[in-house]
């Protein structure tokens, strides 16, 4: 499924703080695990892997949280989490 930037932004803005926190916690954990497993990796590789992990998480959770993750919340959380572990 493909969304425009505006649609993705509207979806993210509609996510409750609780759901946003769960998405971020998952992405943060995945980013740290990726960095620890792949010390030679970079930010872009991290984003790709964390996005895939977030999509798998969304599929396993299902419901509104799963939909929010798969609608783009996971991608945004991946960017933020990977920037934290690959700050350069």
From TrEMBL:
Entry superkingdom: Bacteria
Name of the protein this chain belongs to: Uncharacterized protein
Natural source organism: Priestia filamentosa
């Amino acid at each position: 499924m493909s969304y425009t930037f505006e649609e993705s932004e509207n979806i993210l803005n509609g996510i409750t703080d609780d759901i946003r926190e769960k998405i971020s916690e998952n992405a943060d954990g995945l980013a740290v695990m990726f960095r620890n497993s792949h010390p030679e990796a970079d930010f872009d590789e991290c984003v790709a892997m964390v996005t895939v992990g977030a999509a798998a998480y969304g599929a396993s959770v299902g419901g509104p949280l799963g939909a929010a993750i798969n609608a783009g919340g996971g991608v945004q959380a991946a960017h933020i989490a990977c920037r934290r572990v690959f700050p350069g």
